[in-house]
């Protein structure tokens, strides 16, 4: 009995050593930093009763051949025949893609890095489809990023980062379907350009800003000139309309004044004609002519140095007689007064005599 127990213990010790060697052989290399390392349970020993953690898939082999995948919770295995070969994490995995150099379409060398987010969808394909699937996906992301950057110029690399990320994700998913891995998204972290290119880009930005400032200044000057021209145009229109209204009002006033003077003169002539038809009208006319003669002589040599005088300037009675003769002659040659006018003049004479 003691010999049997000793043999069983020796066999278990050999089995434990064998499992330890297999664990070290199957454990993946740590090719990422500890902060981004995907932590999963180490390969467990077959203790018949196993408890699988949530969001993990344990790949079990029976006599070296794939048997089944253990689900989270309680599971039972056959000792010696069954062993856990791979442990896959079903959580979303974050991988830091190392910085690498790439050449754009316009021959500018860029230093670019990124972050890759992926998840294992099929533990069987991830275990048997590729060796170290995360490392393979990272290498694929780097090569795809270099090829996509080679299709774009430097300006488009900065403007089309979203389309670049989506193209990289699409290319990775096409190749990783056979590995049971799904790339969720890819984000570019930093893009570093050479110092000279950076200086030229800064100069280009400054030139663009100066150009925009110059264009804005010219547009402002143009708007100001247009506003001034429109203001002058409206001022001239208003001034011309004001002058037009002033001239119209002035002409209307002059016309009214002419009419008023004509009416006053007509009334004066009518009154004069009525007065001449009355008694002693000739004497009144002679008196008026004498007054105008004296007034004319009083204004001599006031407006001009040239004076034209009649030969008999001292004979006032002769001048009056001559003026009355001219008036009588003009009265005789004038048209005859209608009967209505004569009746009207007689009525005025009667009224004045009364």
Automatic annotation (TrEMBL):
<feature type="region of interest" description="Disordered">
    <location>
        <begin position="335"/>
        <end position="354"/>
    </location>
</feature>
<keyword id="KW-0496">Mitochondrion</keyword>
<feature type="compositionally biased region" description="Basic and acidic residues">
    <location>
        <begin position="344"/>
        <end position="354"/>
    </location>
</feature>
<feature type="domain" description="Band 7">
    <location>
        <begin position="47"/>
        <end position="205"/>
    </location>
</feature>
<comment type="similarity">
    <text>Belongs to the band 7/mec-2 family.</text>
</comment>
<dbReference type="InterPro" id="IPR050710">
    <property type="entry name" value="Band7/mec-2_domain"/>
</dbReference>
<dbReference type="GO" id="GO:0005743">
    <property type="term" value="C:mitochondrial inner membrane"/>
</dbReference>
<dbReference type="InterPro" id="IPR036013">
    <property type="entry name" value="Band_7/SPFH_dom_sf"/>
</dbReference>
<dbReference type="InterPro" id="IPR001107">
    <property type="entry name" value="Band_7"/>
</dbReference>
<protein>
    <recommendedName>
        <fullName>Stomatin-like protein 2, mitochondrial</fullName>
    </recommendedName>
</protein>
<comment type="function">
    <text>Mitochondrial protein that probably regulates the biogenesis and the activity of mitochondria. Stimulates cardiolipin biosynthesis, binds cardiolipin-enriched membranes where it recruits and stabilizes some proteins including prohibitin and may therefore act in the organization of functional microdomains in mitochondrial membranes. Through regulation of the mitochondrial function may play a role into several biological processes including cell migration, cell proliferation, T-cell activation, calcium homeostasis and cellular response to stress.</text>
</comment>
<dbReference type="Pfam" id="PF16200">
    <property type="entry name" value="Band_7_C"/>
</dbReference>
<dbReference type="Pfam" id="PF01145">
    <property type="entry name" value="Band_7"/>
</dbReference>
<dbReference type="InterPro" id="IPR032435">
    <property type="entry name" value="STML2-like_C"/>
</dbReference>
<dbReference type="GO" id="GO:0007005">
    <property type="term" value="P:mitochondrion organization"/>
</dbReference>
<dbReference type="InterPro" id="IPR001972">
    <property type="entry name" value="Stomatin_HflK_fam"/>
</dbReference>
